[in-house]
Amino acid sequence: MTLNNRYLVLRHGHSLANQAHLIISDPRRGSQDYGLSAAGRDQVASTLDHWPLALPDRIVCSPFLRTRETAALAAARFLVPMSEDAALRERFFGELDGGPDLRYPDVWQQDALSPDHHYAGVESLAQVAERGWRLIERLEQAHRGQTLLLVSHGDTLQILLTRALGLPLTRHRELKPLATAEVRELLVPARARQAG
């Protein structure tokens, strides 16, 4: 698949969920509560002040409050339109939702074994990758020659970056984890584009 657009990914800034060490992955909760912390707003401002990549033409974000607030700060800085898309929502962590974030490694351990596991009712790697890549395909149909900034969550973006690189999804934790308010370019290697 040859991309018509350039894609940047931005993880939301430090959130009140991060501050409380909670897993907040249910859209009913995450879209209303647990926005950015004060530290998170500062992180996003710093990222925007030292923006290292091309300026975006438009922004697409997860409907969660922490990502909407991050995207709104970027949209105001770059004077570009923003929209929400549920394909960028947080990975659903099933029975672990609302619990302590120290349970993430339990899921990642299962991730390394299978892209299709549903340990504790968690959304599988394959499901997250599929919804993320379908969004890319839709954006490819709708836009050409633009720089699109996708504002989302740590696991969702790690999985999407892994899919774009053509790596097995089970290896998503081998990529350097995105820090809060970190931006990277989504790259598709030439061999992956040809196979696309």
TrEMBL record:
List the Pfam families.
Answer: His_Phos_1
Database matches in Gene3D superfamilies = Phosphoglycerate mutase-like
Q: Which InterPro entries does its entry note?
A: His_Pase_superF_clade-1 (IPR013078), His_PPase_superfam (IPR029033)
Superkingdom of the source species: Bacteria
Which PANTHER family does the protein's record reference? PHOSPHOGLYCERATE MUTASE FAMILY PROTEIN
Protein name, as recorded:
Histidine phosphatase family protein
- Which species is this UniProt entry from? Zobellella taiwanensis
